[in-house]
Design a protein that fits this description.
By secondary structure, this protein is α+β, with helices and mostly antiparallel strands. It is built from five helices and eleven strands. The chain starts with a helix and ends with a helix.
Length: 175
């Protein structure tokens, strides 16, 4: 029952994502959770969303680089987003938590065969979902954009996948 509900949610989310792309901008961001952090990924930067799949480990890489996965016939590098953002090691997730995880592929226009692992999809958000925003802090990495606060007081950070895909620290996966 829970698996069917999750599949239905994913299907509705995929339909809304496609509609947003073809009918104009109804939503600005895909909202995700990576570790304890809530992030907003611009819809134009994301491609397909994949369920968790087996990732083939690669030796001698950064601890946040999970390995490679075959995503619809494309070999993609997979990065644990929470571990990358906090400079840590990829978390070991129990099977139940892994089933909730998703891989977000980068848009082909970004020319990066990569997907980021997020712990949970939280839907789509528009600017109307937020009560206030603040500009990017000078201490933030270049791939972190504005910070938004929703009407319940929750803090969200914008994650620019285009800028991320061009960062030396992101491209250098070798340990």
């Amino acid at each position: 029952m829970a698996k069917q509900a999750l599949r239905d949610f994913q299907h509705r989310l995929a339909e809304r994502l496609q509609a947003a792309r073809t009918q104009g901008v109804a939503a600005s961001w895909l909202a995700v959770r990576a570790g304890a952090e809530r992030l907003l990924v611009p819809l134009s930067h994301a491609a397909e969303i994949f369920p968790w799949t087996d990732v083939q480990r690669v030796p001698y890489v950064q601890p946040w680089f999970l390995g490679v996965a075959n995503l619809r016939g494309n070999l993609c590098g997979v990065v644990d987003l929470a571990a990358f953002l906090h400079g840590g090691e990829a978390a070991s997730r129990p099977a139940l938590a892994q089933a909730q995880c998703r891989l977000i592929g980068f848009n082909a226009l970004l020319e990066s065969n990569c997907a980021v692992l997020v712990d949970e999809l939280l839907g789509m958000r528009t600017t109307q979902a937020f009560a206030q925003s603040s500009a990017r802090q000078p201490s933030d990495p270049e791939y972190v954009g504005h910070t938004y606060v929703d009407h319940e007081g929750g803090r969200w950070r914008e994650l620019n996948l285009q800028a991320l895909s061009q960062q030396h620290v992101f491209l250098e996966i070798g340990a």
